[in-house]
Amino acid sequence: MAFVSNLPSISSSSSSVTQLRKPNSFNTHPFNSIHCASCSSTSPFTEKHSIRRYERDNWIYKNQLDQSSYCPLPPDSNSVRDYDIALQLPELKKLLQVLREKRESGGPGAGDGGRGPGNVFLVGTGPGDPELLTVKAMRVIQSADLLLYDRLVSNDVLNLVGDDAKLLYVGKTAGYHSRTQEEIHELLLNFAEAGATVVRLKGGDPLVFGRGGEEMDFLQQQGIQVKVIPGITAASGIAAELGIPLTHRGVANSVRFLTGHSRKGGSDPLFVAANAADPDSTLVVYMGLSTLPSLVLKLIHHGLAPDTPAAAVERGTTPQQHVVLAELKDLAEKITSAQLVSPTLIIIGKVVALSPLWPYSSKERSILVEAK
């Protein structure tokens, strides 16, 4: 199996569970096995090691753990990740075998009548509110055999998955990638080749900072049919929630989406050209909390007014939504004071002052509206 041979620290033998680098007494219950700062959180999203996540994915640890034992894992995230994958591997292999047998027999879930591979759907789940799902996304989610989901897919969306489907967490967050991008590619390929209907769930839209294009390109090169079901990207969903028009006649004639992280990372990855500081445009920054101070300095350096209205929204469109509104020069400081955490979206531009939530001069808002 390709995905087995491509996992760096796991052999194709199920005995590899005992061969991994790990500390002594590593036999542990998955619900308690990893430091779980998010277990008591009210976050609507799937945190990297939450109790709820392990309950949902419990099938994949079947017969691998002594349910009565407990030993907390060390803070070494590489050891945690390697051990977690090793525990998953036997059940993944078993599921692949079942799907292959279904495909060969032409039974339910065989994929193209048992004659060809299954389909992969890249599905956008929106910014968090399950009511923002499209009807098509809902139908595909409820008919899937296997769903690979990211950290920013909300729990409310995951609760819509069919009873017979299998869920596998492949989320990434700073300092912990449960699966590398290459491993995700191999999982999608292997299950599709076994005839499964595979759904790749992504927060927002799969083709907006979701690496959906990479997954689509890889699978298509392997002869797998990929269908993309768009989702409401965070920019649109959260701006609508706050009453911020991303474009507005006479105020903003364009909108630009930026990512706060470069491919190689670093504390200052953003390159902001002069036209990115256009006062007649709206900037929306994804994943930009850590690099915002640098971004603000660059925007002001390129001519954007320090008093440009701006908003930062944590967990937008969910009941846990937390909003910070401020002028650009003060935004980073106010975000720090408010202790916003990921996922937080940042919107910068005069259109922010059109929101009914904007706390500053109402005269300024009236001028903007009349400017159209």
UniProtKB/TrEMBL annotation:
EC number: 2.1.1.107
TM ranges: none
Protein name per the record: uroporphyrinogen-III C-methyltransferase
GO molecular function: uroporphyrin-III C-methyltransferase activity
Keywords: Methyltransferase, Porphyrin biosynthesis, S-adenosyl-L-methionine, Transferase
UniProt-listed InterPro entries: 4pyrrol_Mease, 4pyrrol_Methylase_sf, 4pyrrole_Mease_sub1, 4pyrrole_Mease_sub2, CobA/CysG_C, Siro_Cobalamin_biosynth, Uropor_MeTrfase_CS
Originating organism: Escallonia rubra
The family this protein is said to belong to: Belongs to the precorrin methyltransferase family.
Domain Tetrapyrrole methylase, residue spans: 120-331
Keyword Cell membrane among UniProt keywords: no
Disordered: annotated segments: 1-21
GO biological process, one term: methylation
Keyword set includes Methyltransferase: yes
Lineage: superkingdom: Eukaryota
Database matches in Pfam families: TP_methylase
